[in-house]
Amino acid sequence: xxxxxxxxAGVTAADTALSRIxxxxxxxxxxxxxxxxxxxxxxxxxxxxxxxxxxxxxxxxLTVFEGLLAGExxxxxxxxxxxxxxxxxxxxxxxxxxxxxxxxxIDADGPNNGFQADIEKAGxxxxxxxxxxxxxxxLRLGLDPIEPDPDLSLAEDLLRMLTGERPDDVASKALDKTxxxxxxxxxxxxxxxxxxxxxxxxxxxxxxxAGVAALSGPLHGGANEQAMRMLDAxxxxxxxxxxxxxxxxxxxxIMGFGHRVYRxxxxxxxxLRRMAEELDGLxxxxxxxxxxxxxxxAMFARKGLYCNVDYYCAxxxxxxxVPLDLFTPLFAVGRAGGWAAHVMEQHRDNRLIxxxxxxxxxxxxxxxRIDQRND
Length: 375
Known about the structure:
about 375 residues, CATH 1.10.230.10, globular, Citrate Synthase, domain 1, 2 domains, mainly alpha
């Protein structure tokens, strides 16, 4: 394995009909549809249907689909009991991992990997993950979970269950768009983890647990949280240069910049940048966008690096009033539908994923009995 292949860089590990990334041109497609019109004119539910069924829905089909998902939006008593038993300091992603595992144990279709069973389980997962995220957040604050409202969109209901107040259209549409942009992105670390587990013919819940675990890492899903922590640490536009001088001089990574696939701007970042500007100051003091833009411009001038999807998503979530440690769980809310699509695709045409490793240890050595070894 060459150095360029470390981390499987450039290695094709699976065939997929779900999303295509053109890293040289900075383009992303869901089932052949460019991300830009989907994000500008479509919705999360429409894009989710597209990934699961391969075609855009009619108005009637989308209404039925979203109605079925809304009907699954609930907090099972078994999951609520487990969430209540967790220590209050439990990280939200750890709580989500626990909740998904419990969901798998109480679903009668759990072990069934047939397509119809997988579709039904996927609908439950996508619908219940936001409820679990909101419930755990409320419980750790000493508050009772808020009952879901199936008459609201998933994004609108999630914000309501987190805050106790129904959001305005601007906020709910902004969250819906972030969920759409996070829905799928090829064989990223968490999606690949899902497909590896699915390839063993483990069930969909087990595979989604792998995705949640992989997403919790700071170099993947945690990047949006780390990007916001960086902006908070900088504090103001006049401190940008000093901060970058110090961090870059120490060869430390600036979170939210660079991408393993894109050589130009991440196409999702352009939408999030506009949203960050429009939402700035919606909750709390304005200025987050101005600071984020200053850091972005300084990084491009110094290193020629573009920001990625996580960078401005951090600013959007801050403007929506989302607590910092819920940034990654909201990423999971969006990505869960993509994970499910990949698991179903793997189950339909499966072969066990089993790559090889290049050995770099010692050559063959003779065994010496323990009583003959030197102390």
